[in-house]
UniProtKB/TrEMBL annotation:
GO terms for biological process: mitotic cytokinesis; mitotic spindle midzone assembly; Rho protein signal transduction. It comes from the Eukaryota. It comes from Vidua macroura. This is RGAP1 protein. Keywords: Metal-binding, Zinc. Pfam families: RhoGAP.
Length: 260
């Protein structure tokens, strides 16, 4: 395993350098030890009208704008309600087992999500949000636009780089664009909290691999090494864009930004 991914049987992450088993037909990935529990047929199992455990971002988005998944809204709302005084927000990991359990609860719940107020450790809520974004079939900036984001962030002139990034953001699928805007506004609020001690540089290091990722689902080790510093650069540049740009995507309609 080059890029850590969740086992589709037990849900826990298969870490870098570990051996895993992958189906050559449906691409299902799992720990070697979980093979006995794997369904023998390549057919999707019913989820009782719940969201898929993995998918494109649009699979989780509401039908009316702004197209931000309820899980993202609920996690962000909870973090902003009681997490903006926590040092190392998004950098300090939450308990992996609790993150896994709550992510599973939220994905199985579908549209009406259980309250996150009962989660004592706010870092667990942060972990759920990051794990959800990492588990998507492609990163938020999408595989096809990934090179364009890197090129725009590499432009030396700040004004020209910002103009190019705004243009590339506008080409994202609507759900990806709205969710990226919602997250950027949230991360800007985190960066402005003196208690969190998470400036733009720290946040870009945390969210670069998650939001930008790579241009393919199976990058080579060389691509991973080359992309990592550029991923951070893209997020830092995105966070330097004016908040009014991001608000233009998510403040047209507000009803979906209130968690159930």
């Amino acid at each position: 395993v080059i890029r850590p991914e969740p086992c589709r049987v037990c849900g826990s992450r298969i870490r870098f350098g570990k051996t895993a088993t992958k189906c050559c037909q449906c691409q299902l990935l799992l720990h070697t030890k979980c093979r006995e529990q794997c369904p023998s047929l390549c057919t999707p199992r019913p989820h009782h009208h719940a969201w898929p455990r993995e998918g494109m971002l649009a699979d989780f988005a509401p039908s009316t704008p702004p197209l931000v998944p309820a899980l993202v809204v609920q996690c962000v709302t909870e973090v902003e309600t009681r997490g903006l005084t926590e040092t190392g927000l998004y950098r300090v990991p939450g308990a992996e087992q609790l993150v896994r359990e709550w992510k599973r609860k939220l994905l199985r719940a579908g549209g009406t999500l259980p309250a996150l107020s009962s989660v004592t450790d706010i870092h667990v809520v942060c972990g759920v949000l990051k794990d959800f974004l990492r588990g998507l079939k492609e990163p938020l900036v999408t595989f096809s636009l990934h090179p364009a984001f890197l090129r725009a962030a590499d432009i030396p002139d700040d004004a020209a780089s910002n103009t190019a990034l705004c243009h590339v953001v506008s080409k994202l699928p609507p759900a990806n664009r709205d969710t990226l805007a919602f997250l950027m506004l949230h991360l800007l609020r985190v960066s402005h909290s003196p208690d969190c001690k998470m400036d733009v540089l720290n946040l870009s290091r945390v969210f670069g691999p998650t939001l930008v990722g790579h241009s393919t689902a199976n990058p080579t080790p060389l691509a991973i090494m080359e992309d990592t510093p550029r991923q951070c650069k893209v997020v830092a540049r995105l966070l330097s864009l004016p908040p009014s740009f991001w608000r233009g995507f998510v403040e047209t309609e507000q009803e979906n930004l209130v968690p159930m």
